[in-house]
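Hi R.,

Here's the chain you asked about this morning:
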Amino acid sequence: MFNLLSMLTSMSTALDFVEMDYLGVTLNHSKRVAYIALQIGRELGLDDTHCLDLITFSMLHNNGSVKANEKITYQTIKTEKQVQKLQDYCRTGEKNIRGYPFFHHYENVIQYHLEQFNGQGLFGIQGQDIPVFSQIIYFAHCLDNEFNLPHVTELDKKDITDYCKRNIDRLFSHRIVASFMAVQQSTYFWLDLKDLFIQQALERSSPFVKQDWSWQKIYKASTVYRNIIDSKLYGIKDQTLSLCDITDRMCSYYQKGRIETLQIKIAANLQDIGMLAVSQEVLNKQVGLKEEEILEVKKHVYYTQACLERIRDFQDISKWACNHHENLRGNGYPYKKSRQALDFNSRLLACLDKYTAITQDRPYRKAYSPKHAIQILRKMALNDKIDKAIVEDMAYVFDQT
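And here is the predicted structure, written out as tokens:
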């Protein structure tokens, strides 16, 4: 049975890099927010399915920050332009998660997750008009930003209590603070927040709801991360969306089964999840990259593997996703794999990834035509870098013969 939480916690590793760069948060921020939110949710009487949805929102609450190109937090806002940027991040985050297979229907949880209870937040939403999930996430988010939760002392606990009570009806509702005050009395609560324990604590505390996650549902979940990746690569419009579309066409041509097709499309959606760890400055550069910048970009495959290899039943998906920069000559990256080590689906995704890259705009050049792209791929095949037969099949399917 597919473990959704395993996917969420694994993917949060990539999002951590973005949040640390642009929001000034600490490592494992989203996991701590999810853990605190879960404990509060349970104290408020949420059932298991709502708790699982709350965990998902909490893990993804800062996903809109991938669009950032400067460090900005709510506490450092100085201009109206910065307010508009944070609003844009919140809207982007809300848009990115549309289509995720939640247990229940929700609206504006991510968009309003930085609202203050007194109405002084980004959008001016006040009191109980703020979705309760947004209130919980904002409380947990603020707590982790204000205090060094992995290393809390007894004196810190007193300061945290004072901070929470001082901000009742200002930042937070009395109900949320009262729920937190109840759950934080446990010694284990504070130990669980340590970096060493937070992931296993979250997994241990999360409710188990027996649900058959079909590959179709897992694919839908992967499209959320595709949206996040495309938000990061906003200079490369709909990169993974286009890749997924042509992957579907080629899988149909090769008469792949439904499950294998979905798995290959999941790999296409997630192959660049490691790009979230690459600086926006490098990705947006208008001229050729320096050697050290090229090396930084190449690291994205390692980060992708670090995210995917921990997810149960993702062995093939991880392999296909992480092989898309290998080549048949054995001098690709990151592992310089031989042609014998590259199975058909790895070769297919490598060809499709290159075709997508060539036919889309980049910050440093305009897109090439599909016909020109096929010509470039044919030259690469002649140099024994990619599979010649697959290139010719692509030319046929894309009507570029």
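One quick note: The mean pLDDT is 89.

Cheers,
M.
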